[in-house]
Amino acid sequence: ARGEDGAWSFAMVDLDPEVSSGYTCLNELENPGAGATALGVFSILFSTCVGIPQAYKIWRLKSSRGVSFLTLGLGNIGSFLYVLNLVILHYNQITLSLSRDFTFWVSAQRSLTFVWVELFNALSMLCIYPIASLYVVDEPCPVKIPSLGINTVYTMRDAVYYGFLVQVGVVFVAWLPAVFVFSVDGRCEPLALYGNFVGFLVGVIIVVKFLPQLRESWYARGSYSLSYLTYGVDAAAGIVAWAQKVFVTNERVSSWLPPLFLHALEIFVLCLNFYHDRAGHQDMSRRHGPGHDAHRRRASHGDEGDDEEARYHHPGRGTAASPVYADASGYGAGRASGSRDGDSQRLLRPLSPSGMRRQRSFTDFL
Questions:
Q1: What does 143-198 look like in DSSP terms, one character per residue?
Q2: Do the Cβ atoms of 148 and 58 come closer than 8 Å?
Q3: Is the Cβ–Cβ distance between 40 and 113 less than 8 Å?
């Protein structure tokens, strides 16, 4: 039935007011305005695309160095558990949206925008893991849990594969009770407490999931394949959401404190990576002279092979190929030839590090 405020009510004679409060089961379809609906559609599209820059950067660099698989795995588990939490608490709305024709279902999705946002966000971030696993460095990965008597060494590829199986197992086990109860009872109320427990686990995962990435970035001393765009935009959107919860909707501390800690960690890690990347760029600039001298020695000896000393290294971008040389006008002229007469016998100066950086500016921006 439609209430006085225009919302559709889901009639249930045995509704428990203690359980069906504003913090648990939601039993009415909302009727947001055009602005809120447009914002919801934008949020869904944004969530769908948020993982693309990170996946593309890993694929473009053919490396997953600087990216923590433990953070990715915890993020996947937390995201799909959060979707489970939302499905449980919105299940009465979902059932009501299916009670009439397709047009009504489409209109009812405005009340389920947050569910769609988190679902597409989870799927978008999930795509990063398999792409990163293709380019993982296959080095030893010791696993030690003394309390369980576990002390073994896997290859990194095996560890990443088994980690993915663990993620699938945890998510499957968490969803199984909800699927069973929904198939038997078809209401939110029997699972309301379970949904809140899942929400508590999500809060714990949110707090700890970026700590492994902090450790990875600390020892990597550079961004490497970690995307500034993906996590920068995620942090910015999270800060905006935090401000809305605190100053607009006045929500409980438990609803905004864990995400605030996560986004603060994201910002710290991005700043740390930026510092090391800038330091690496300055180091490359200092090595510009030695690289030039190495090329002079190679040219004088007639050695056209690669010289490691003439190669430029940057912690966030790897090692560049032998420098491209340019004439005084700034245009590249290939490798210098030592057979020119007069003033042309001088070696053509190499392109500046900033010129080398511009060649990969799009990937660096990600």
A1: EEEGGGTEEEEEEHHHHHHHHHHHHHHHHHHHHHHHHHHHHHT--SGGGHHHHHHH
A2: no
A3: yes
**Residue pointed to by tokens 């990170």:** 54
User: What's the helix, strand, coil split of the chain in %, to 5?
Assistant: 65, 5, 30
CA angle in degrees (0–180, nearest 5) for 50-68-164: 85
Amino acid letter for position 176: L
The region of weakest confidence among 6-10, 215-219, 324-328, 355-359 is: 6-10
The CA-based angle 132-134-137, given to 5 degrees, is 85
Longest Cα separation, the chain: 99
Nearest to 59 by CA among 133, 164, 124, 125: 133
Does residue 322 contact residue 304 with C-beta atoms inside 8 Å? Answer: no
Q: Determine the Cα–Cα distance for residues 53 and 50; give it in Å rounded to an integer.
A: 7
Strands 8-9 and 332-334: unpaired
The per-residue DSSP string of 11-50 comes to: --TT--TTTSSTTS---EE----HHHHHHHHHHHHHHHHT
Instruction: Say whether pTM exceeds 0.70.
Output: yes
Token pair 């511009």 in the structure block, residue = 358
What pLDDT, in 10s, does the model give residues 153-174?
A: 888 999 999 999 999 999 999 9
What are phi and psi for residue 247, nearest 5 degrees?
Answer: -100, -15
Residue carrying the six token digits 């439609």: 2
Quick one: tokens of 214?
């902090």
| Cβ atoms within 10 Å, residue 257 | 16
CB-based contact 121:50 (threshold 8 Å): yes
